[in-house]
User: Fold these one by one.
Assistant:
Number 1:
Amino acid sequence: MSTKFSFESGWNSLPQKLQNEVRDKIMAALKITTLSSFYRRKHGNTEPRISEVQAIEAIFAEYNIIEGIWGGKMD
């Protein structure tokens, strides 16, 4: 599985205390209603549309994470 669509690297840059807040913002922006859908996207199992990439990057930018968002570990 490719990790090029994963935003796990950006996720791991967040302090743990902010992860629920960021998860909720991403879920709202992408209109995701289940945690399993969120985690599929986080791990790169679902290829994001360009508008979704822009939304995710904007959310991470709110937390001063502007580089190294995309990619993650191989399972």
Number 2:
Amino acid sequence: MKNPSKHSPETIERMKANAEAARRRLARLNREYLVRQQAEKASPSKPKSKVESFAEAVMRIAKQDRVAI
């Protein structure tokens, strides 16, 4: 608010209420984010998926099944 005299008291109160509501929403979002981060740290990590070609997949499966190609 650059110049409060430009606004009516009702408008000033509404702007203050909106700012307070925005602060509450931001605080709630921050709490939710922290909970998600803690849950992610607590859960077992997934192994990184490696993109493999068709030939590599065939060779991997053959090794697992002990099949000679």
Number 3:
Amino acid sequence: MVYQIILAVLLVIVSGISKSICDLSSDGKIKFKPESYWVKSKSWVNKWKNGDPTQGEKFLGSSRWFVSLTDAWHLFGLVERISFAITFTLGGLLIVSNVWFIFFALGCYILFATIFHIFYTYIFNKK
């Protein structure tokens, strides 16, 4: 049970950080370089040969199955969804063992929102 709690807390932190990266990438405000990977509006070219959709995919599945390998927005979106799902699956398993763990699930969501806000506003944001 202790391992489930620790893992859930760590994963909800990862999820909040990943969500902040996705939103900053989408807004074009992320401070990481190169922009062709980190900024969503500029990274779409990474899916295609020479950045041209008419030439086809850069590699097999680069615009479908393996799109998360082409840019930060897709990669961190995947990380966010997986970590969020595992966190609340673990929370659900804890609730089954004791109904009071419903407050743990609520706390996890508050922690997610807090971590997102801190990283979005102060840490990764290009001012």
